Amino acid sequence: MTTAHHAPGETRPGGRTARTREAVLTAVLEELGENGFGGLTMEKVAQRSGIHLATVYRRWRSIEGLICELLTEIGSDVPLPDSGTLSGDLRALARSIAALYGEGRVRRLIEAVVSAAARDPRVASMLRTFFDERLALAGRMVQRAVDRGELPADTDPVQVMSALGAPFYYRILIARRPVDRDLADSAATAVRAAAHAGAYTKKSDGPGDGTSPGG
Q1: All residues at 6 or more sequence positions from 127 whose CB lies less than 8 Å from its CB, including other chains
Q2: What is the pLDDT at residue 14?
Q3: How big is the CA angle at 133 (ends 131 and 136), to the nearest 5 degrees?
Q4: Are 49 and 27 in contact (CB under 8 A)?
Q5: Which residues of 112-139 are buried (b: 16+ CB within 10 A; e: fewer)?
Q6: Is-contact 194 200, C-beta < 8 A?
Q7: Which of 17, 19, 59, 123 is disulfide-compatible with 117, CB 3.0–4.6 A?
């Protein structure tokens, strides 16, 4: 489930620039795992990565910029499936998410960023934008199902994808238990059934009608 959000790191060039990017993002992930968001600084990232501090500031400008690109990089590891059926797509996507969040360092990243977002409006805005883009992109998978006639014509793709992701974040952030393939399969099955039954149709009653994603 990739996203088009590449600022401030912008593109993914090869050669020395790619090595710099990899070293810096790896350092960010390791720092988050060891010290959490509160202990993350540009200076520590530069020191751990071996990249000059001026280079880190020039390319990413801020901690938020680093986190944004790291989330984008991790999100790109979850491809958007196109199996030809909604059931197959949901299962494949959910299993990919489970595999990603099965990594301890990725779970720690999510925990750190969500915790920081609760205290810092800048981080909250960044996280909201990131997930809005991910949901919109993954929603194309649902729209294909609508176009094939598998779902009601007024199905809201963002609501469907929000519902698919919700069990993972509950498991990670609230229950604080590992995610696994069983969770992925049950989430995919439940969301597919609910979508087919019309649970995620667009409403036209105005504000508060339930059309916005729930997190």
Answers
A1: 71, 113, 114, 117
A2: 59
A3: 105
A4: yes
A5: bbbebbeebeebeebbeebbebbbebbb
A6: yes
A7: 123
Residues 6+ apart with CB under 8 A from 212: 158
Question: Of the candidates 61, 86, 68, which has an alpha carbon nearest to the alpha carbon of residue 131?
Answer: 68
So what's the pLDDT on residue 210? 41
Which pLDDT value is given to residue 106? 86
Q: What is the CA radius of gyration of the chain?
A: 18
Full-model pTM: 0.77
Tokens of 149: 């006639």
What letters, b where the CB count within 10 A reaches 16 and e where it falls short, cover 10-49?
eeeeeeeeeebbebbbbbbbebbeeeebeebebebbbebb
The residues of the chain scoring below 70 in pLDDT are: 1-14, 204-215
pLDDT tens per residue, range 39-61: 889 999 999 999 999 999 999 98
Q: What's the helix, strand, coil split of the chain in %, to 5?
A: 70, 0, 30
